[in-house]
Design goal:
single chain; 804 residues; mainly beta; five-stranded antiparallel sheet
């Protein structure tokens, strides 16, 4: 009993809990019934639909809501339960965001559509239908129509008087051509053809074209037969190939022409085009023209469609005298002989196939001109083209000119003219280089879209007016002028652009010349690259002057043609063999091909490397090994000790020279000794010298230890004699006074010294006897036959009178 009560209570509690839970509403799904495109400037209609689930009671009145770009619009009508129609006002926007949603809080759901602005297709162009001359199928074509948004679908409609309903031929969007099979139409009946286009926003169709299949049959294209020249006029003729089934009553032809090197055709006046001939009046001289013609057949008063254009026919107009002026320049040519170069006349100016050139030149005195009229210059043009110098550049080496001896520098001026059988151009003159004329400065270059822009500074204070500049380029590092070209620019310009084909990683020498009335200046040049790369390995690596702590590493410069760019610097590095890599050292070297490596350890082996660097980066490394010398400190110490001993010994010997006579000669001052002179008598007397002289023992050739001057008699010349005619005798101190007097006379009469000695040589004489020297001067004396003798000892300390 008790258990049943508890069970009923639990059941009642569960029911109460279930009654308190909210009721679940089935999910509701909303569909947007709107297109992908809308017609700009027109109202847009659409609908929103509830697809699944019943709505709660609170959402029955207005369940759906439309929002366009954030703006809520009211419903327009309800055409069906769960479907609400809306209308969006006209808009000029390019896009519209459409949202349909259920606004009830208990059943929220929505959908979005992004609509793009568009327009109905425009009417397609009218088709043109023809039947090829070698087929029975109809080919209809029309001009392309601008693409529409949204894309339009095309269809071709074909009907005839014998058909009740038109045939529809669906086409791909953007089609401009359709083929109608022979089985789809009835021959010899009038046909109607039009093109229709449609998309989501509307449709349109072209105008209806009416034709008879017999009248749209194309005849075969004409065939040109030949051309004729009548003075300067050019006439072309053609023939018409007729079908056997067609009898023609006449032709109506159209013709077009163009020069061979141009792309645009020129339509000839229909009144000037005959049934089988056309004359081109006053064409360009010696120009190759292309012609095309097409014709329509006149049959029973009806003109058929025109044939296809014929194959192009080429004919050349008549020759004429050349016009214009040549662009003449000079090329030193590196290792080649100097050459005269000029640009060949273009076909528009040459007016002839048989064109040659006349070159005239004169020397520095301009007294005579030498002419050269030969086809060799024409061959030079072909040589230049084969060597990459440009097909329009002609070249003539002056060494091959008849009548010219020597090289180009011996020629002062040249003139070149283009000549054919009908005339010639005005001669173009060129004056060669004048080294006295100032040249441009600071030449530089930059790359612009594969071309070289060259800049320069004009010459400072030129003595003459600069007429123009010439900018020249050619490949560097060659003995030939490959890639040679030049342009002329106005004197006011400071830069120019060199165009043409430039090879990558190839050096070019760019030169700028200033042209004056008296010649052109020397070149101002720079080496340029259109595209640089990583340089190759450095060649010729060697090591010299190795010591215990340093060494000199040298290498050869990379050849210009192989450097692949301008070498800006070299990187030199070294590391000890077996040592850690993080101890590697390096230095940078610019402008030279050697470097000194210092800071090495004695007796160690090192690995050295050198690499070149361009603007792009470093090249591969070239390696070499070296071993430093061992440092011998013991030998250095021994050499130092020996040197100190030698210096000390020399000092001691010079300190006491009297004990060492031979040393005294080197260490002591050299003082003249009058006793060694042969002018004085030598006598054995110890009274003259009070103390013995040790050096006399070694230097005197006499056996006596002491010598003295006994007597010296001086007899002055007549110009310097005293009034009393006294004779002065001197012994010892008196001899010194006589010597002092003679010195004073010598200083006071320097101007008369040469004459006195001359008279002395003639009048004086000397006699030495028994240790005495007697000098007597008098009018009765007999002059010696030989000049006075002066010993080497006297000459060593003072000059002789003859030398003075």
């Amino acid at each position: 009993m008790r258990k049943s009560i508890w069970r009923d209570a639990a059941l009642l509690l569960l029911l109460l809990l279930l009654a308190g839970q909210p009721r679940l509403v089935p999910a509701v799904k909303v569909l947007c019934l709107w297109g992908q495109y809308f017609h700009r400037g027109h109202n847009v209609s659409g609908a929103c639909q509830l697809q699944e689930g019943p709505l709660p009671p609170s959402c029955i009145t207005q369940p759906l809501q439309l929002t366009v770009d954030g703006q809520t619009l009211p419903p327009q009508s309800h055409t069906h339960p769960g479907i609400t129609n809306f209308t969006v006002p006209a808009s000029q926007a390019s896009r519209l965001l459409i949202r349909c949603e259920v606004t009830c809080a208990t059943a929220h759901s929505s959908c979005d559509v992004m609509m793009e602005a568009g327009s109905p297709p425009s009417p397609p162009p009218s088709p043109e239908c023809v039947i090829p001359h070698d087929s029975d199928n109809i080919i209809c074509s029309w001009e392309p129509d601008p693409p529409a948004t949204p894309p339009a679908s095309l269809s071709l409609y074909l009907t005839s008087t014998r058909q009740e309903s038109p045939k529809v031929m669906p086409l791909q969007p953007g089609s401009v051509r359709v083929l109608i099979d022979r089985s789809a139409y009835v021959s010899h009946s009038n046909l109607e053809v039009w093109v229709s286009a449609w998309n989501q926003l509307g449709s349109a169709r072209s105008d209806v074209v009416f034709f008879n299949p017999a009248h749209i049959k194309k005849p075969p294209p004409p065939v040109f037969s030949h051309s004729e020249l009548d003075g300067s006029d050019l006439t072309v003729l053609w023939n018409m190939i007729q079908d056997n089934a067609v009898g023609s009553m006449g032709r109506r032809c159209n013709l077009r022409y163009r020069p061979y090197m141009e792309q645009n055709w020129t339509e000839a006046d229909s009144e000037l085009v005959g049934e089988d001939t056309f004359t081109l009046q006053d064409p360009r001289p010696h120009t190759l023209y292309l012609f095309q013609v097409r014709c329509a057949i006149m049959e029973e008063g009806v003109t058929t469609v025109a044939s296809d254009w014929s194959r192009p026919y080429s004919a050349r107009s008549a020759e004429a005298a050349p016009v214009g002026a040549l662009d003449v320049w000079a090329d030193a040519g590196g290792g080649e002989a100097p050459a005269l170069v000029w640009k060949e006349l273009p076909p528009a100016l040459s007016h002839s196939a048989a064109l040659w050139y006349e070159v005239r030149q004169c020397g520095a005195d301009r007294s005579s001109w030498v002419g050269n009229r030969t086809k060799e210059a024409r061959e030079g043009c072909r040589e230049a083209a084969d060597r990459g110098g440009g097909g329009s550049c002609c070249r003539l080496y002056l060494a091959r000119c008849p009548g010219v001896t020597g090289v180009m520098t011996e020629v002062r001026e040249v003139s070149v003219s283009a000549v054919n059988r009908l005339g010639r151009t005005q001669p173009t003159h060129l004056l060669f280089e004048n080294k006295d004329l100032p040249a441009p400065q600071s030449v530089s270059y930059t790359m612009e879209k594969g071309n070289l822009r060259v800049s320069w500074v004009p010459p400072p204070d030129p003595s003459e007016h600069v007429q123009e500049f010439v900018v020249q380029r050619k490949e560097a590092g060659l003995n030939c002028s490959r890639g040679f070209d030049w342009i002329r620019v106005n004197a006011t310009q400071r830069s120019a652009i060199l165009t043409g084909v430039f090879q990558n990683y190839t050096p070019y020498t760019v030169s700028v010349f200033a042209l004056y009335s008296s010649g052109h200046s020397p070149p101002a040049s720079v080496t340029s690259y259109t595209l640089e790369g990583v340089p190759p390995a450095v060649p010729g690596l060697s090591v010299s002057q190795i010591s215990f702590s340093k060494a000199t590493v040298a290498w050869e410069p990379i050849p210009l043609r192989e450097s692949r760019g301008r070498v800006r610097r070299y990187q030199v590095g070294w590391v000890e063999v077996g040592g850690p890599e993080d101890q590697q050292q390096n230095i940078t070297v610019s402008g030279q091909c050697q470097a000194q490596v210092s800071g090495l350890a004695p007796g160690r082996q090192y690995q050295l490397w050198v690499s070149a660097e361009t603007q792009v980066g470093q090249g591969p490394r070239s390696h070499i090994s070296l071993t430093t010398y061992e440092r011998n400190d013991l030998m250095v110490m021994v050499l130092c000790i020996v040197g100190v001993i030698i210096v000390f010994a020399v000092f001691l010997l010079c300190k006491q020279p009297r004990r060492w006579p031979l040393v005294s000669v080197c260490c002591c001052e050299k003082i003249p000794d009058p006793r060694n002179s042969r002018l004085y008598g030598v006598q054995k007397d110890t009274s003259l010298l009070q103390e013995p002289k040790p050096w006399l023992w070694a230097s005197s050739s006499l056996s006596e230890s002491f010598q003295k001057i006994c007597q010296l008699e001086v007899i002055p010349s007549p110009e310097h004699t005293d009034t009393g005619g006294e004779e002065r005798r001197s012994t010892g101190e008196g001899g010194e006074e006589g010597e002092w007097e003679r010195e004073r006379e010598r200083e006071g009469g320097e101007e008369e010294e040469e004459d006195e000695w001359g008279r002395a040589r003639k009048e004086s004489y000397s006699e030495m006897k028994d240790g005495e020297v007697l000098v007597a001067v008098g009018p009765g004396a007999i002059p010696p036959q030989t000049p006075p003798f002066f010993s080497d000892y006297e000459k060593h300390f003072m000059p002789s009178p003859l030398e003075v």
